[in-house]
Amino acid sequence: MHEKKKILIFIDWFLPGYKAGGPVRSMANMVDYLSDKYEFFIVTRNTDYTETTPYQNVEFNQWVKFNDCVNVFYASDAYQNLSSYKTIIESFDFKIAYINGIYSWKYSILPLFALKKFQGKKIVASRGMLAQSAIDVKSKKKRLFLKASKFLKLYKDVLFHATNEKEKDDVKRAIGTNTDVIIADNLPKKSIPSVKQIFKPKDELKLVSLARISPEKNTLFAIEKLLELPDIKGDIVFDLYGQIYDDNYWKECKEKIDLLPSNITVNYKGLVDADLVGETIQNYHSLFMPSRGENFGHVILESFMSGRPVIISDQTPWRGLESEQCGWDLALSTNYKSALTGNNKDFKSALSKVLQMEQEEFDQWCVGARKKAMNFINDPNLIKGYIEMFE
């Protein structure tokens, strides 16, 4: 029997963790789809995002059999160093080393130093971290690192994994025009939820966001858009699920929440397990997440899969949504005119439209959302990019 090619992966967080959101989901989906072709060895932390307490019932600092073709090394702080990584790299005949992310010292940068003498293929997934909108957050540190990486030739002989043409352009702009980049879109969950109908009376709107409470996800902006609806007729509930990324930022959000009229309510609901995201979305009429940038946006696809339209920014790969009756992708600045749809809607008018929808019209948009998901999931080219990248 032909032995499967062994792929070594470095990523800050992996299952059973879920608080880091998209990166964990991207990796879980990738190994789920490709484990029939490759054997994966994942090196990750033994704690979840922002946590210091290790996972319960998980063995540390040794290879754990996650399933038949996925092995995980849950490293404690003491094992997250150059020496340990070199030992891990030399422990098997790895053909490929895949690094998730750009700025993490322990799981993006240190592995590259440990792999200096590695003879196999080295791949770095930028995960949207080289988009201008992402670099602009804590920009001084990031620009200094990118400058140093060029001086140190950190990415010499590295293939970058981008999920779309825009991300490919971001990589070449940030790392260098001669950088090798391959495009392979993120993979969806294999399990597809059944869609349940939700009651949608006119002048009632239930919105949800499932993302970190952070500047990147633009939580404050979303709340400010609700503040632009003071005279609107009807009731709006906006529930926030996700990790509070910055206490000062959350304080700003709460100050804006206190200014909302009585018919508009914003609630913080804590965290949701990754396996319950789709089920949670189906309790609402629409996902409302005007983030500053997504290289993919797993929760957006989950909303489509759950048969719910989205109200998002135009800083994601999901574009031209209104023409497909599955949502709105809107500019974060004013005076928006979409090149794709020709509309001139802003967040206020999109929110107003969904608020005023009655059941029959709303159900059509739910059907459009589900159709959008199925068209993406059934695209035969999804796997091809990964096969090309790993071969």
Verbal overview:
The chain is an alpha/beta fold and 391 residues long. It has helices at residues 22-34, 82-89, 105-114, 132-135, 139-151, 165-175, 219-227, 247-257, 277-281, 298-305, 347-356, 359-377, 382-390; strands spanning 5-10, 38-45, 63-67, 70-75, 96-100, 121-125, 158-162, 180-183, 204-210, 235-241, 264-268, 286-289, 310-313, 327-330. The strands form 2 sheets. An 8-stranded mixed sheet has the order 3-4-2-1-5-6-7-8, sandwiched between helices. A 6-stranded parallel sheet has the order 11-10-9-12-13-14, with helices on both faces. The two termini are 19 Å apart. Mean pLDDT is 92; it is low at 335-344.
How far apart are the first and last residues' alpha carbons, in Å? Answer: 19 Å
- Any low-confidence stretches, pLDDT <50, length ≥5? 335-344
Helix amount, in percent?
25-40%
Return the string of H and E elements.
EHEEEHEHEHHEHEEHEHEHEHEEHHH
Q: Indicate the structural class.
A: alpha/beta
Largest β sheet strand count, sense and barrel closure: 8 strands, mixed
Radius of gyration: 22 Å
Shape assignment: globular
Mean pLDDT: 92
| Beta-strand segment tally | 14
**Tally of DSSP helical segments:** 13
Strand content: 15-25%
Within the largest sheet, what's the order of strands? 3-4-2-1-5-6-7-8
Short structural description:
This protein is α/β, with parallel strands linked by helices and 391 residues long.
Question: What is the topology?
Answer:
Layout: E1 5-10, H1 22-34, E2 38-45, E3 63-67, E4 70-75, H2 82-89, E5 96-100, H3 105-114, E6 121-125, H4 132-135, H5 139-151, E7 158-162, H6 165-175, E8 180-183, E9 204-210, H7 219-227, E10 235-241, H8 247-257, E11 264-268, H9 277-281, E12 286-289, H10 298-305, E13 310-313, E14 327-330, H11 347-356, H12 359-377, H13 382-390
Parallel strand pairs: 1-2, 1-5, 2-4, 5-6, 6-7, 7-8, 9-10, 9-12, 10-11, 12-13, 13-14
Antiparallel strand pairs: 3-4
Helix pairs in contact: 2-3, 7-8, 10-12
